[in-house]
Design a protein that fits this description.
The chain contains 19 helices and 13 strands. The strands form 3 sheets. Strands 3-4-5-6-9-10 form a 6-stranded mixed sheet, with helices on both faces. A 5-stranded parallel sheet has the order 2-1-11-12-13. Helix 1 packs across helix 19. The chain has 367 residues and is an alpha/beta fold. It folds into 2 domains: 137 residues, 3-Layer(aba) Sandwich (Rossmann fold); 215 residues, Glycerate kinase, domain 2 (Alpha-Beta Complex), CATH 3.90.1510.10. It starts with a strand and ends with a helix. A hairpin with a 2-residue loop joins strand 4 and strand 5. The longest helix has 16 residues.
């Protein structure tokens, strides 16, 4: 039997590459004759570059960039170069894992995206004519002001000091930043379709998970509103402008186009062709719930499987949907690691626990 294994990361425990390998280990214990095709997946968030490197090869260019706290060289990152295209993962420079996330308090109001701009600049300097920036998992809410500053933008307030630095902004000169990326095709890879500001904007929707206090959300949203009025209010209303704390907005200001992250990765690694060659598609993620429909990997992989007329099953740390919702997501069955081995072991030995679950699932699905 031919099985395509295409999981996302299991957040906090396994990368997508590690998850795919763990599933393969368990599956082979039960069905050693099956032919497994490992295709670790990602949207635009953490793991974006690693997954594309695993699938496409290419050259990794190391770049120590400014971290979200403003520490120069504090964030080790890499640019993936493949045939004139550079892939950049914003989470490497400003991810929530670098800020402490929930409870980080005042740091969240100072966290900057300068490092992401430095990665884009490194890609351009390396000769890339197309730069794809994966957005997701950020710990910043500065509207991409830091990115703009790193590329040469100037304003009447500091652009590199997080959202708090934007208070009172009235004028922003983007000429130098636009010149820095002139002739380069910029692409935003993100499945978040929120605008920059408002009830469903970057601060009010995602701010709490980045450490912004509830009572501060209107204040931060107001700072982003000022940035929008100083640059391009219409662009701030575009779907995806609120992605990664507003990094989507900054890239739109520089002329970027936007594509769904999962679809971009799927196309890049040839997932439709590989699904058509398989008998079964296996996907997975840390928590499989109905939010998985919002541009997450299992939903995207299931859609590819459905297009190829192949069944798709999901393995997850936790399964939080019923059978009806599961089928609405295009998944035949979903299986939970924590239900099989318990929550404690699933966290203490994530790879081994996932392998055990894969072995159990193979009993049902392998011929």
């Amino acid at each position: 039997m031919r099985v395509l294994v295409a999981p996302d990361k299991f957040a906090g425990t396994l990368t997508a590459v590690e998850a795919a390998e763990a599933i393969a280990v368990g599956w082979r214990r039960r069905a050693p004759a099956d032919e497994l095709d490992l295709a670790p997946m990602a949207d635009g968030g953490p793991g974006f570059v690693d997954v594309l490197h695993a699938g496409l090869g290419g050259q990794l260019l190391a770049a120590a960039v400014t971290g979200p706290g403003g520490d120069a060289g504090g964030a080790p990152a890499a640019v993936l170069l493949v045939d004139g295209t550079a892939y950049v993962e914003s989470a490497q420079a400003c991810g929530v894992q670098l800020t402490g996330g929930r409870g980080s308090g005042a740091l969240a109001e100072r966290a900057t995206t300068v490092g992401v701009g430095e990665l884009v600049a490194a890609a351009v300097d390396a000769g890339a004519r197309r730069v794809v920036v994966g957005l997701g998992g950020s710990g910043t809410t500065d509207g991409g002001a830091g990115l703009l500053a790193a590329l040469g933008a100037r304003a009447d307030v500091p652009l590199d000091r997080g959202p708090a630095g934007l208070a009172g902004v009235r004028t922003v000169d983007l000429a130098a930043a636009r010149a820095r990326v002139a002739g380069v095709e910029l692409v935003v890879a993100s499945d978040v379709d929120s605008p920059l500001t408002g009830l469903f904007g970057a601060a009010k929707t995602f701010g709490p998970q980045k450490g912004l206090a509830e009572e501060r959300l209107p204040v931060v949203d107001g700072w982003l509103e000022e940035l929008a009025h100083a640059t391009d209010r219409r662009a701030s209303l575009e779907p995806g402008a609120g992605a990664a704390g507003g990094l989507g907005f900054a890239l739109l200001l520089l002329g970027a186009s936007r594509v769904p992250g999962v679809a971009l990765v799927a196309d890049a690694v040839g997932l439709p062709r590989r699904a058509a060659a398989a008998d079964l598609v296996v996907t997975g993620e840390g928590a499989f719930d109905f939010s998985s429909r919002s541009g997450k990997v299992p939903y995207g992989v299931a859609a590819v499987a459905a297009e190829a007329l192949r069944p798709c099953v999901a393995l997850a740390g936790q399964v939080l949907v019923g059978s009806r919702e599961m089928r609405a997501l295009g998944v035949e069955s979903a299986y939970s690691v924590s239900e099989l081995v318990g929550q404690e072991r699933s966290l203490a030995e994530p790879a081994a626990a996932l392998a055990d679950l894969a072995e159990r699932v193979a009993r049902t699905w392998s011929r």
